[in-house]
Amino acid sequence: MDFESHLDWIDQQHDAMCELVIEWANINSHSYNLVGLSNFLTCVRTAFSALEGEMEDIAIDPHRVINARGEPEDIPLGRMLFVRKRPTAPIQILLGIHLDTVYPADHQFQTVTRIDDQRLQGPGVADAKGGLVILLMALNAFERSPFAENIGWEVFLNPDEEIGSPGSASVLIERAKRYHLGLLFESGLVNGNLVSERQGAGDYTVVIRGRSAHVGRDPFRGRNAAHALARFIMEVSDLQNSHNDIIINAAQLSSNGAVNVVPDLAVGRIGVRIAHSDSQQTVQQHLDRLVASLETTEGISVTLHGGIRKPPKVLDALTSSLLEDLKTCGVPLGLSLEWHPTAGVSDGNILAAAGLPTVDSLGARGGDIHTPMEFLEVNSLTERAKLVALFLMKLSVGQLTFSPVQSCH
Ligand SMILES: [Zn+2]
User: Most-buried pick from 32, 147, 171, 392 (CB within 10 A)?
Assistant: First the structure.
C-alpha cells in the first residue's frame, strides 16, 4: 500500500507548520485569559475547518477556587472545541490537546523568536501549540489518503489543562466512553521518546477558623488558626516521610491579622503527587484524620477542599500494544522510539482512568516548558505528524496489532 506519498505531503508542509506554530504561540492563551483564548479559538476553528468535521464548542464549568478569605469563588474558563468525523466508522479515536498555556498576559515571555534553523523559542511552542499543529497536519494527511474510511475520530481542544482541567475533566471522562483509543499531543520527552506512565496529582486547600483576641490582654480567649495550620502542615508532611511514593508540597500558607492579634483565619494550599492508585485513599484518610484531630480543640473549625484530580496513569496491556504499534510505525521513518515514565501529569491521566487506552506524548520535541526558555525542535513537527498519520493509515487497514474490539467499552 502506498503510504509514502501521503507522508511526503507532510514533509512539504514543514514551513507552513513552523509559521502556524509561530502565529499561534504569539497569541497569549493563558488559562484565565478569556479574550486571548477566544481569539485563539477563532484561529484554531478556521484551521480545523479544513478537515470538514462537525464542530461544536461548549461552555465548561468555572474553576472553583478557595480565596484568601477561605471562601469559594468561581473563575470563568474558556470554551472547549470538538471536531468530529465519521461517528459510525468501526474504529473510533479521540485525539486532543489543550489550548491554554502557563504564561499570563502580563508575563514578560510573549513572543516567538527563531534561535536557529532547528529551534523556535516562545510561550507554548512545545506545550502544546506545536502538538496542536502536529495533530492538525496528521489528520489532514490521513483525510487526504484513501485509507480514512474505517476510522472515525473526534478532536477535543480544552482551555484549562494547565490549571488541572477543572472544567473539562468531567467532559473528557464522559466522552472517553465513546472511543477505542486516545491520542494526546503533549510534548514528548526531550530525546523524542514517549511517556509510558505518569504520577497522579492533586491539590488541597485547608481553611482553618479560630477565634480572634488581643494578644496581650486576652491571649487565652483566642484560638490561633495559624498555629493550628502549622500543626496540620507538619503532620501532612509526615505522610511523605512514611510513604516513599507520596510527595507532599505545602505552599502558600497565610493567616489574617496583625502580630498583636490572634489570627482567626488561616489558609494553606498543598500539592500532592502519588505513584500508585491506592495512595489516593491513603492521602485522603490521613487528611481526614488530621482535620478531625484539629477539630477536637474547642473553637477551631477546619474545612478541607480539593482532592486527587488526576489519578496515576499506569501502563496496561492495551496501552503497551499502542506503544509497540507506534514503535513499528517509527521504523520506516528512521525513528527508534522507546518509552519511559515521567512525573508530569496530563489529560492522559484522566482518559486512562476513564478506561481509554491512551498515548499522551505525541506532540513536539522540545524542552524547558513552563519557563521563559521554552523551545521547540522544528524538525519534530513533520516527524511526529508523519508518525501519527502512518499510525492512523496502518490502523485503518488492519496492519497493526492494536485491536479496537478488545477495548470496546
Ligand atoms: Zn504544560
Answer: 392
Report which DSSP code applies to 257.
S
β-partners of residue 208 are 266, 302
pLDDT of residue 409: 47
Span from the CA of 370 to the centroid of ligand 1 (angstroms): 6
Q: Which of 206, 230, 234 is nearest to 291 (CA)?
A: 206
pLDDT mean over 308-336: 96
193 and 64 in a common domain: yes
Whole domain around residue 25: which residue ranges? 4-199+313-407
In tens, the pLDDT along 55-67 reads 999 999 999 999 9
Same domain flag for 254 and 332: no
Report CA(369)–ligand 1 centroid distance (Å): 7
Mean of pLDDT values over 197-219: 95
Question: Could you tell me what percent of the chain has a pLDDT over 70?
Answer: 99
231 CA from centroid of ligand 1 (Å): 33
- The DSSP bridge partners found for residue 274 are 200, 246
Instruction: Give me the count of residues in the chain.
Output: 409
- For the purposes of burial, counting CB atoms within 10 Å of the CB of 2, is it exposed (0-12), middle (13-18) or buried (19 or more)? exposed
Assess contact for 77 and 30: CB atoms under 8 A.
no
pTM of the model: 0.94
Q: What is the CA radius of gyration of the chain?
A: 24
